[in-house]
Specification:
The structure is a single chain. By secondary structure, the protein is α/β, with parallel strands linked by helices. It is built from 8 helices and 9 strands. It has a 9-stranded mixed sheet with strand order 1-2-4-3-5-6-7-8-9, with helices on both faces. The radius of gyration is 17 Å and the shape is globular.
Length: about 300
């Protein structure tokens, strides 16, 4: 069942006060300065690979990435809406506590909740991540607010959650759908220290993201009538800097609501991106380079990258 996300873009007059670029000028300027300092200090590996490396789980295979679950059994933990900074949600995590895992925070879209993407949490967690599907403070929060809430959820996950002991606070990633995807771009610009961002059919009034210094894969949908790829995903991708790495994947024949139901293409390439950039696991580069095929016999209608 599809979520309750609005089937049309919110009126500009409603969204503009929260999403207007001018309102975030100081934050974005600070983000750019911090990004430069972060890159200068930490360095970036060849072809955009992070300097760190952590192999968690068996050697990956195409079949394993396309399966409905990965090598780790998972469990979940509910987080109350009374938590500060965001609206609670559900944490999915590997039962194997012999590792410390990267964290992934996923934000919902306009009027939607964390239950709209319930398939994604255990799917990603089964490949060795602690995944936090969050709810927002209100269902009408704009992308900039959703980005701030993703950041608050990252802090909670690494510092105060019941699974904080298996979360590596230095290995965080942001994901989100629609306005949540717009929020993932916001937090990627504001926190250049996070390792990866994956906006899913993202929506944001701001089309320029040249200040992002986080490896970002944007997943658009060819037939999206809410956040059309020509007005959102593609301009977002084109505005991102080429380094430390970016990709644009467009789902063949898909609608704005493709992330609401289990999707092998989203899972396969999201896992590969997160493994490569959050864990620094070069074993997963093979699924991104060479780029996946597009066309008649593919679920991908367009793919662009600066990784190969």
């Amino acid at each position: 069942m599809l979520d309750s996300h609005a089937t049309a873009e919110p009126p500009a007059a409603t969204a503009a006060p929260d999403a207007a670029p001018a309102a975030r000028g100081p934050l974005r300027t600070a983000g750019r300065i911090a990004a430069a300092l972060t890159l200068a200090v930490s360095g970036v590996g060849a072809l955009g690979a992070p300097a760190h490396a952590d192999q968690i789980g068996p050697d990956p295979t195409e079949e394993g990435l396309e399966a409905s679950s990965g090598p780790f059994d998972t469990d979940e933990e509910s987080v109350s809406s009374l938590v500060s900074g965001f609206g609670g949600g559900t944490i999915h995590y590997p039962e194997d506590d012999s590792h410390v895992y990267g964290g992934v925070v996923v934000a919902p879209g306009y009027t939607a909740s964390s239950t709209s993407y319930s398939w994604l949490g255990p799917r990603l967690a089964s490949h060795g991540f602690v995944v936090f599907l969050i709810d927002t403070n209100t269902r009408y929060d704009q992308p900039s607010s959703r980005g701030e809430q993703i950041g608050a959820a990252m802090d909670y996950l690494a510092e105060r959650s019941d699974v904080a002991d298996i979360v590596d606070g230095d290995k965080m990633a942001a994901m989100g759908h629609s306005m949540g995807g717009g929020g993932a771009l916001e937090i990627a610009e504001d926190r250049p220290e996070i390792k990866a961002a994956i906006p899913l059919t993202p929506w944001n009034l701001d089309k320029t993201w040249g200040g992002v210094r986080v490896p970002t894969m944007i997943i658009g949908a060819e037939n999206d009538s809410v956040a059309s790829v020509s007005s959102h995903s593609i301009p977002f991708y084109e505005s991102l800097p080429s380094s430390p790495g970016k990709a644009y994947l467009e789902l063949e024949g898909a609608s704005h609501f493709a992330p609401n139901i289990s999707n092998t293409t989203i899972a396969k390439y999201s896992i590969s991106w997160l493994k490569l950039y959050v864990d620094g696991d070069e074993r997963y580069r093979q699924f991104l380079c060479p780029p996946p095929s597009t066309g008649w016999f593919s679920d991908i209608s367009d793919y662009r990258e600066t990784n190969c």
